[in-house]
Amino acid sequence: MKKIFLIAITLFLSACSSHYETTTQVDDKAYLQLSGSLAGAQLVLDKQPAINLDGVTSYTEKDETVIKFVVATGNHLVEIHKNGETLVKRNIFVTNGNTFEIRIP
User: What is the pLDDT of residue 99?
Assistant: First the structure.
């Protein structure tokens, strides 16, 4: 009787074990988001040729025009020029899945 009871308990305890598995999905892109006074502004990223922001696809968020660019992870030099004047000049660092936001005055 004891053997049957011990076998039943052993089977019961082994049947109660569970396996838990998770999967984490990481966005392997980084983003640069510009908002504010975008009309007539130009973006210079890492000393590359200027991008005229008037011709870039934008969307509206909270009654404000926003432009979002996919950038490589790491360090970047971001410059915003308007009417021959430098409005923003920043060194930024972005990591996977992060968005660095810059508001243009």
Answer: 92
Q: What are the beta bridge partners of residue 7?
A: none
pLDDT digit string (tens) for 63-72? 888 999 999 9
Report whether 105 contacts 87 (CB < 8 A).
Answer: yes
Pairing of strands 30-36, 99-104: parallel
Question: How do 59-61 and 30-36 pair as beta strands?
Answer: unpaired
Q: Give the ranges where the chain is alpha helix by DSSP (H).
A: 2-15
E strand or H helix at 23 = none
Contact predicate 36/60, CB 8 Å: no
Residue 72's closest CA among 42, 28, 103, 35? Answer: 28
Whole-model pTM: value is: 0.70
3-state secondary structure of 90: strand
